[in-house]
Amino acid sequence: QVQTVESGGGLVQAGGSLRLSCSASGRPFSSYAMGWFRQRPGKEREFVAAIGWSGSSTYYADSVKGRFTISRVNAKNTVYLQMNSLKPEDTAVYYCAQHRRAWESINGSPDITDFGSWGQGTQVTVSS
User: Fold this and answer.
1) Are strands 18-25 and 78-83 parallel, antiparallel or unpaired?
2) SS3 assignment, position 12
3) pLDDT digit string (tens) for 64-115?
4) N or C: which terminus of the chain carries fewer CB neighbours within 10 A?
């Protein structure tokens, strides 16, 4: 059974930065694409960023492109989300999840239903 655990959230002022981390266990981490998603208050969970199994392919939601960077260190079974130039509208619970199928690259905005093994989430609050 796959387990994912997010960390690194917190309270930050607009324009600030945070780095989220997500560790995953239960399946060979290096074989699976990983994704970051978020759920803003009163809204549905939405895609933020994803990275392919090898780390060579990434994709970002338009709302975070140029500000957020997803990366992975397979030796540490960890995926990161570096968030810069944060805005109040980035306030959300951030989740990471693992792709359901191995050896997937990310060639466009992924279907959220392709991801599973959701973590408990980490709260990010950006004050204005």
Assistant:
1) antiparallel
2) strand
3) 999 999 999 999 999 999 999 999 999 999 999 999 999 999 999 899 999 9
4) N
